[in-house]
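retry 2 of 3: previous attempt timed out while embedding S-adenosyl-L-homocysteine. Reduced batch size to 1 and resubmitted. Inputs unchanged:
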Amino acid sequence: MKDTAKHQGLRNQLISVLKEKGITDVAVLDAIHKIPRHLFLNSSFEDYAYQDKAFPIGAGQTISQPYTVAFQSQLLEVKKDHKVLEIGTGSGYQTAVLCGIGAKVYTIERQNELFKSTSLLLPKLGIRPKHISFGDGYKGLPNYAPFDSIIVTAGAPFIPKPLMAQLKIGGRLVIPLGEDHQIMTLLIRKNETQFEKHEFGEFRFVPLLENKN
Ligand code: SAH
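retry 2 succeeded.
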């Protein structure tokens, strides 16, 4: 598992692409600049790891496109030491970017195969989320709530109520909403009962599935 000058050069180019596409948050760009995305992919995709594309990661899932990771991370407005809940650990790349910004990350994955492989990979890369959980993201992590922000990295047919309940007042929930394509949606919790909703255009994600266990 190597990170070479060639990879760093490709990351510089990726950062330029993300800036051209409108990403401005310096903490997000710095984190993407330092995380070796090629080590989160099967080695057969190594040459493509810094293209702004999604790729298969096994178990029928994908690693999100860098622009999508950057866009969602920027909407979260993550600050150092924020408690962030991620639904859909997948490859662990988005987890790594959030850790790279300095967040305390709690992440949930429902596919056992991915949960196991990513739980092993992250510490090998020196990336230490606070908690990696195997389970159903629709339920969130009530034992660790409340969170400064929550990011859902799969397309959700509706906003799960437990996630709204686990958000701090002033907290931000970023969730792609819809079945075959998704509208990126930001909810900001105003008080106990009120949430402000903002929408940010169309994206495509694998579906957020309910646990059949
Ligand atoms: N953040 C990931 C994106 C992976 S794709 C990355 O950067 O690679 C979305 C992930 O959500 C998949 O791994 C999928 O298995 C997971 N997922 C789908 N439904 C889920 C649920 N109900 N709870 C937790 N994870 C879920």
